[in-house]
Design a protein that fits this description.
Length: 269
Amino acid sequence: MKSKVLHGVLLIGLFFGSFGCGLSSWDKLTITGTVAIQQRRYADAEKSFSAALEEAEKFGPEDTRLVQSLNNLAMVFAAQGKYGEAEPMYKRAVAIREKALGPDHPDVAASLNSLAWLYGAQGKYGQAEPLYKRGLAIREKVVGPEHPDVAASLDSLALLFAAQGKYTQAEPLYKRALAIREKARRADHPDVAQSLNYLAALYYLQGKYAKAEPLYKRALAIREKALGPEHPNVATSLEGYADLLRKTKRIAEAERLAARAKAIRAKQK
């Protein structure tokens, strides 16, 4: 955590010291808010992003900086559980992008996904699902059905189904996302590990441990090789695999993996 704070201080110094003379008030407020949210100083981030939004309102109703400010403020509201305050921000961002860019633009899909995520976080699955589906359809149309952005949309929709216990609907989406990433990326790319982890977790939730285990193992191996043995995502893989080992009564091995994950987490604080 101390290193993150130091990084934030250095970042502010870099921009305000070396380049500050050329930055607008909106730029400075946005940078300050971004550093604050990285450090989980949500009240400070909210203050900076709110002021940045006031500045952005002066740029015109379709300015990209206005959308960015709306998204930033919505994000910090959501991080604090202020979903009711985040919702109109995300909705307005969708409306601005639809008007400025057209209903089938990839940026519209991104805004739809943000709003869908907000509904999903509140358990409003019926409101989230059509937004995720529309975002997916836009991406399939614009960037093609095998683009990594489509995989991201498939994951989001699958997560929504899994949260509702709709495992049979989630599984083919996760499998398709995995296939896209294996084709678009290297077989040992971290994005492939993410897909493997999602699918493994889905099988774990259904008690299909024999199907889940090789996926957890492969994801762990990819992350260790690509990210290093002490990366937080390695800890995530270790924790998931440890849970499976406990369920299958391999307690000693589970505790070994869990201890390693705990040590990684401790170093991140």
